[in-house]
Write a structure and sequence with these properties.
189 residues; alpha+beta; 4-stranded antiparallel sheet; 3 helices; 12 strands; elongated
Length: 189
């Protein structure tokens, strides 16, 4: 029995920084999409927030300009700096909070991109992380894959799309049902 590879999400940070707080800190925990997993301090995220606030102030002061190039330039700068925040995976609620309060946040949240079960945590509180650090592996366990070996003489009676059933000694009396999805194109010795 293995993970359904289509239901695995591997979460990486988009920037380098330090983990300030780990809100989900144990494997096996179930999370919903958009659950706050951790907060990160990143100098790059702080400077991008500063740039966004400057672009916002610039746009507010120039949005009524009689010169279209100046007005459009301020608007483009605002859109581009907001887009950088979005590309860094800064959540919408924190961007809105920044726009309203005009106060830079030292820590920004990283949310779960999918619902599922935490299968692996790759970093801990206080740890320095890079974009290559896998923070979490989340798996949707509502569907799993079952690998089964069959004998060579059984091959003619097995085809993709067949309905299958499985029982487990550890869960007596329960029958798990599924569909044969794939047959590997090789045989084991």
């Amino acid at each position: 029995i293995a993970y359904n590879e289509d239901g695995i999400t591997r979460l990486h940070s988009k920037t380098d920084g330090w983990i300030e707080e780990l809100f989900i800190d144990r494997t096996g925990a179930n999370v919903e999409k958009d659950t706050i997993l951790l907060s990160i301090y990143s100098p790059k995220l702080v400077s991008t927030q500063e740039e966004y606030l400057l672009a916002l102030e610039n746009y507010e002061s120039l949005k009524n300009s009689k010169f279209p190039d100046i007005k459009n330039g301020a608007k483009d700068l605002l859109i581009n700096t907001k887009q950088r925040l979005i590309l860094f995976d800064v959540p919408d609620h924190q961007i809105k909070e920044l726009e309203q309060s005009h106060k830079i946040k030292k820590n920004l949240h990283i949310h779960s991109p999918a619902s599922g079960t935490i299968m692996h945590i790759g970093a801990r509180k206080g740890q320095y992380i890079t974009s290559g650090t896998e923070l979490y592996m989340i798996s949707d366990l509502s569907k799993v894959w079952v690998y089964a070996d069959i004998y060579e003489y059984e091959i003619p009676w097995v085809k993709v799309g067949d309905k299958v059933e499985m029982t487990l000694k550890g869960i007596p009396g329960r029958v798990f049902k599924g569909t044969l999805d794939y047959i590997y194109p090789y045989a084991e010795a």
